[in-house]
Amino acid sequence: MKRRDFIQYATAGVMTPVALGGYSAQAYGQSSLLNSLAAVADVNDRVLVLIQLNGGNDGLNMVIPLDQMSVYNTLRANIAIQESKVLRLTNTVVTGIHPAMTGVRDLFNEGKVSIVHSVSYPAASQSHFRASDIWFTGASSNQTLTTGWIGRYLDEEFPGYPAKYPSTDMPDPLAIQINYITSTALLGPEQSMAIAIQNPDTFATLVGDKVSLDPSPTDNTPAGRSIAYIRQQQVSSVQYAGQIKTAAGKGKNLVTYPTGNSLADQLKIVARLIHGGLRTKVYYVSIGGFDTHATQTDATDTSIGAHATLLKQVSDGIKAFMDDLRVLGIDKRVAGMTFSEFGRRAGSNSSRGTDHGQAAPLFVFAGEGIKTQFVGKNPNLSDLDNNTIKMQTDFRSVYSALLTDWLGETTNTSTSVLLKPYDPAPMFRQSVMATEDPFVTFRMFPNPAVSDVMIESELFGPGGLQSLRVVDMAGRQVSVPVERLNNDSYRLSVRELPIGNYVVAVEANKRKLTNRLMVSR
What we know:
By secondary structure, this protein is an alpha/beta fold.
């Protein structure tokens, strides 16, 4: 939240008679107490860490639908993870994650991770460049934007950058990317709102501490504008060099990070700078290699291989980072998300790889505040769009949640940043954006249904179903013909049911399971 907004809201609050330390709060008004409170709120503001998985991550081998293993194994017979090796998660028996991701599994089981299913956008692009640009800018598929979504957010929060910064209220970089250059996501109206660094220990030495630039004006040509941009970046870098050097000197890392892990190396720097006192709002890190068209897995053991190595680096890096923040006592200030420009196809190719797809899951993690561990449900692998997973959650709904529910911006600010309103995805709220319970333990399709409905799950057990009931919204049991195909599969005829919503309840393998059914014509 902006310091001025805090003062505005706090000022409105002190107009009511409230006792504060034995004195009426109304008497303070715009006093030193109020300004001190505003300063504390600003210093302790939350931080957002963005983790880009560059290349298009295969989400279906990262988050695995245990309720659809038969279809899953058929679609990707040469790369499917064996069910016995999938890591189980608390509170669900239908969803697991890749066996290399023990760190994320542990964080999830601690209530610090939300899995957002099937994230994409309408008419998704399968071009690396275009899809990345859409995720960076928050654009629609038929729209081109010249600013990034984080750049617009920072411009709203800190207007007048770069001319008015560093300032007394904000002496530190608005955003930092651990890289040579900054992402399009960080582009503001005039330039990048971020500083790119590789190593805070050498950054100040490399850029110096004094501005020494050619003062001559540049031509209004593409080359001239590029020169002007580079000069401004140099000025910004020099202005912030001292702050970064000081924070790096004060900050510490108190846990051991994995070696040979580029993402962990970057997150280690981020933790150190946050602990060192930088008030930077956004950190951006990345890891590449996710364009896994071939040899995604080992030929004899699908739980290892190129993709497994990448997922382990992501998982181990995030776990070390969050553990470090916890030990340092600053984890409750920090949230992060993983994202990739698109997912992979549901079916594998003959090269033990996956080709470009559409929707994929992502992780949102935080030291505190995660309320919904699943947003949406497992994708229906029997209802694909040209072998790609259909979208459940628009990625801009995730951005909206990060802006409003985490960073404390207003709905109007979120709408301004994202250029239209998006309902926040409920990672930080006690609700679920899905038409079905995310803990559903059997699959039902088609749904909505017209005539026949298939229900199936390997979780029914060797004895199949002990009972099956269909109940309408008034709680009345209705009769439907049921045909048993095998222990795992049943067919229901709903031809005679009126249009509407129903609950299908089954008992199987000592479990009572339910799913929601819509009948339409």
